[in-house]
Write a structure and sequence with these properties.
The chain is an alpha+beta fold and 232 residues long. It has four helices and eight strands; from the N terminus they run ββααββαβαβββ. Helices cover 28% and strands 19% of the residues.
């Protein structure tokens, strides 16, 4: 763990220098199913959620981006039955409150074959999704090290694929599959953190000289995200 002398006051936001006025759930609570929606006898997945001090901008004002990211992740084929349950709940919410899903209005769906079955694929607003991923990474880093992630880093969602009409889709998707295989092997013996690993857990790698940190985050058993510091 990094030098405690570098820790920041919990009076400021996990993602910026503004005063913290609330607590942000990392990941947002929407990802965790309510107990009443789970099969009888299933443990409560909304207990012991990660919370970090936050300003209004990095909590309440990004709620629409959080919901957008939620819609992307729960609709992924990389996930388990819990995500499928959440996806069904998401569709019911879309029917009740269509205004919440205005981001889908102009999106064109592409036919794709997944596990031998015909399905659909919708383009992702990567700039919007990346904003969510950066905040997520900063929040997890803050929770783990009790300090802010101020070094430059990039985020890479390994579960997103190129659209079928992209000329580089085969090369890109094969490359991502190779990286995923390497990451799975690399983190095989690493500790998993998170009280509700069926929904979300993370793993941390840090070089001995403390120069580079790699954060691996998994939603619903399969949607994988890598956040890594950029070497100078």
């Amino acid at each position: 763990m990094r030098d405690n002398k570098k820790r920041y006051s919990k009076e400021t936001c996990y993602a910026c220098s503004l005063k913290a006025v609330t607590k942000e759930h990392v990941p947002p609570k929407v990802f965790f199913p309510e107990k009443k929606d789970l099969p009888l006898g299933h443990p409560d997945m909304r207990k012991n959620l990660i919370r970090v001090p936050s300003c209004k901008i990095h909590n309440l004002e990004k709620s629409e981006d959080d919901f957008y990211a939620f819609s992307i992740i729960v609709s992924s084929f990389d996930t388990t039955y819990i995500a499928q349950h959440q996806f069904s709940k998401y569709l019911r919410a879309a029917h009740r409150k269509p205004a919440l899903f205005s981001f889908l209005k102009n999106e064109e769906s592409f036919p794709v074959i997944v596990n031998g079955k015909l399905s659909g694929s919708t383009p992702v607003d990567t700039s919007r999704f990346d904003k969510f991923l950066f905040c997520l990474s900063k929040g997890i880093y803050y929770r783990h090290f009790e300090m802010k992630w101020e070094n430059n880093f990039y985020v890479f969602p390994l579960s997103l694929k190129e659209q079928p009409d992209s000329k580089d889709n085969n090369w890109y998707n094969e490359k991502v599959a190779s990286i995923r295989k390497d990451m799975s092997s690399f983190f095989t013996d690493s500790e998993k953190f998170g009280a509700n690993p069926e929904v979300f857990y993370y793993q941390i790698f840090q070089e001995p000289n403390d120069d580079v940190t790699v954060l691996r985050m998994i939603f619903y058993g399969g949607f994988e995200i890598i956040a890594s510091e950029e070497k100078e």
